[in-house]
Every structure is written in C-alpha cells, then in structure tokens.
Design brief:
The complex is a heterodimer of chains A (318) and B (212). With 318 residues, chain A is an alpha/beta fold. Chain A has 9 helices and 16 strands. Chain A is elongated, with a radius of gyration of 22 Å. Chain B has one domain: HUPs (Rossmann fold). Chain B has 6 helices and 11 strands. The chains are: A alpha/beta (318), B alpha/beta (212). At the A-B interface, helix 3, helix 4, strand 6, strand 7 and strand 8 of A face helix 3, helix 4, strand 4, strand 6 and strand 7 of B. Strand 16 of chain A pairs parallel with strand 11 of chain B.
Chain lengths: 318, 212
Amino acid sequence: MLVEHDRGALAPAALEAMTFARSLGAEVVALTVGAAADGLAEPLARHGAIAVYQAHHDLLGDYNPEAWGDVLAAAVRSLQPDFVVATGTDVGNEVLANAAAVLDVPMVANCLAVESVDPFTVRRVRWGGSLIERATVDAAVKLLTVAHHAIEAVPAEVAGDLDVVAFDVALDERVARSAVVDRVERAAGITLATAPVVVSGGRGVGSADGFGPLEELAALLGGVVGCSRAVTNNGWRNHADQVGQTGTRIAPSIYIACGISGAIQHWVGAMASRRILAINTDPQANMVAKADYAVIGDLHQVVPAIVAEIRRRREAAG
Amino acid sequence: MEAAVQIAERHGGTTTVLTVGPPAAEEQLRYAASVGVNSVVLVPTDGSDWDPQRTARAIVLAAGELEAESPFDLIVFGNESADAGGFQVGVRVARALGRPMINGAKSLEVTDVVATVERESDAGRVVFTVPLPAVVGVKEGINLPRYPTMKGRLASKKVTVTTIEPTASAGGQSLVTLVTPPEVMTSTTVLGIGPDAAPAVADLLTEIGVLK
C-alpha cells in the first residue's frame, strides 16, 4: 500500500485505500516515502498495517512523481507483493502509473471492488462513474488504485503491533528534475473538495451576479460555492469552482444544488455527497429525482428566503 | 490541442496531433487541423478496446518514427481519457522515452529549456519545472479551446492524415463488460414549494448539524 501524504499530512483518501487493501484478505504493508511521513506509523497501524516501510533519501524531501514511482517499483521488486494499492487521486494514480511503467506491468485505475480472484476481476470506474467496467488483470502483481469517495475508511478491528522498517533506496540523481519547486497555498482553509457544505448554481442562476445569494448562504453555513459546467462555459465563474467529472469531486455533508438540471457529468462529481438538496423550478429535473430533499421553486426567491430565515433564527437565539 | 497550438504560436515551431483509434477518428484529426495543428497522425485500431499498455506501446513506436526527422520538445497528453480513464498512458510513454512527465496541469508555460507546470492540490497550487524535452498531461480548464475559423476549415480538408501502424502487443488488463451502475432509487422528500419552504430547509440544516 502506497501511502499518499503531503509533506507528512496523511491524505484522507489513503485511509479509504487502506480499507480496500484490507478487504483483499492479505496482510497490508504500508510504504511511506520521505522522512516527513515517519509520523504516520500510528494511524496506519490503527487502519490495519502490519508493517510500515519508510523510504528515506535526500531526493525525497517534497513530492516528486518520478522519484516516488522509482521508490515504489523498488519496493515491489524487493517485497514481491500480490497487490499494490494506492489512492485514486492525482498523486496516487500518477505514482502507481510511474511504478507500473518501470515494472512494465498493468495498472488498473479507480477500482471499486475485487469481484473474483480467478480470473482476477475488478470493477472500476469509467466515464467518471457513469459506467462501471468489469476488467480482468493478468499479472503476477496487481497494481490497483481505489476510486476516491467510493469506500468509507474504517479502522481495523484489531490494530496489531506494527513493524517499522527503514527502506533504503538508491535513486538516480536525474529524478531531481521532477520535484515540486514551489507551492502556492490557498488563503482560506476550506476548499470545494473538503467543504462540509457546498452551495452550487447552474444555468438557472442566469448571471455571474446571480451567485450573490448563493455566496451568502454558503458563508452562513461555513461552506463554499460551486457551479455546473454551463456556468463556467458562460464565463460566470472560474473552472476551479466546477463540480463534476472534469471539475472537482465533492463529498460534503450536504450539497445544495440550485438551478442545476443534473446532467450525468455533473452528477458523478456530486454523488459522493452525504445528502443532496435540489432547488429547482422543474420537479422533473434529474437533480430533483436524485436528490434526498427538494424545494420546487425559483432559486432567486428560495435562496434569499433561506438566508433570511437563517438570519432571523440566529438573531432570535441572540 | 489548444495548449500545444498556443505554445507554438507564442514560441514558434510546429504542432503534430496523434490519436490512437478507429478510422472514424480521422474526423477528430481534421478538426485538430481546423484549429491550427500543423500535422496529424492516425494510429489505427480495429475499434476494439486497447488496454493502456498497448496504447502506450503504440504511441512510443509511432513517436519513434515521427522523431526520426526532428524530436519533439514537448509532448502533451490529456490528463486521462474521458471514456477509459486509465490515468497512465502519458506516464508510460514518458518513461519509455526517458523524459520527465507531470500530469494534472492547470497551467503550462515553456521557455527554450524548461516547462513550468502548475496543478491544483487540496492546499492550493503545486509548481513543477521540468527540463525539455518533457511530457505534460493537461486537465480540462487549462484554457478555453478556440473554434475553427473558415480558413481553418478549408485547411482541414486538405491536410494529409499520416497513418502509422506499429505492432504493439496487448498488456495485462482486459475489458470484460461495461455495466450501468445501479440507479440510486432515492425517494425525494419535497420540503416545500417556493420561498415558503425556507423554515423547513433551516430545520433540515439544523438537524444535520451544519446550521448552528
């Protein structure tokens, strides 16, 4: 199991991948890359790792897809595992692809489950989740990434003692070329991908200015504003705010979709939301049919009314 | 395609688009020519689903033929294919060619010697600077692709589609079937009609703990 982390901070998807790895029925050995990740042994043990291999090298200070891929390939050659599991994220898919290329073995991205062992068959995500592929994998070692948000991370029932092993690895100096050279940290703490509440607008919002009430509602709930592809195509908001197959996959406690019809490409970005509230004039809209809750009406009236109601209650509560 | 055409416009040079696909993919290649791509190459398949290893092997062989005349400074891939979503063909090609590869680019700038790539992370933006020749995978949203001009449309009719048929062996992943995910049968609770629904919405937000 390749452990995704950002300079020592464990990626939430990594624990989902740990849960998937345990479900394969084998013992799970974790590989952390870089000394910054040495502190992750404890949470990995809690999630069922029996050992953690800690790769250290001067070239492993920050993320580097080429170096991480080489480390993982070296670990596979040395440990000869049956499976290699990584996160189905930018980083996880990238590192596993690098290792797969070095080892010249298949890699199956964004798996949902293993369906059978012989022939080895997985279910995986296609078209961003609107289709499921059943695929066989013919290889001595199976490299799999786990679709993000598809599995709930569950700690192991019994967290055993964990062997901590220093994994010395030789790296070609040339890999230094692929290292992160700079980071531009976002000012605010919450992002579309991690927000507990996402208030999104679609074509029905009608203009860039029309997002004002949605911004207000999101701010009152400690959330962020998202949008559908129609909105970015019209230039009302940046692509960075787009929820969907080619935008951001979200997983908030509640997704409030205002004036969004719910095309499949949008739905696959929103479907991991715990609850969905659709606000739409059309009771037959896809988004309304797929939502847990709906308000049938014009978002331009409904959203300001919700904002006013929340303000009224807060004032009443003092 | 748009990223490649913009770079060639800014810095000089030429662009070549290559696709692996059935003969019908020629239409996409002609579209590429209509938005300013200089030459187009088809690596034909029989229409069956090629696994990522086979696709990558074919591209590496085709690139070898194309680079016999003049090597590419930069090879641009999509971050992943919309349909198969393998997230690996570009990386495999880069590794086979011995070049660095950064995927997920939301910004791509080049000089004569390096490509600077920015991509998004949960915390913000991450910047890489890789020496040319390099391989970069770009994400949707990196730019707004242009539409063909009348001049471009005429050029696309005349462009020669070069066909390269490398012998690429299959890899270890095989498609068995495609299935539609089970429809989530949600019974939607209608909280109300119009602005009168606001108290019910506030109740719900309080109940699930997002309104404190």
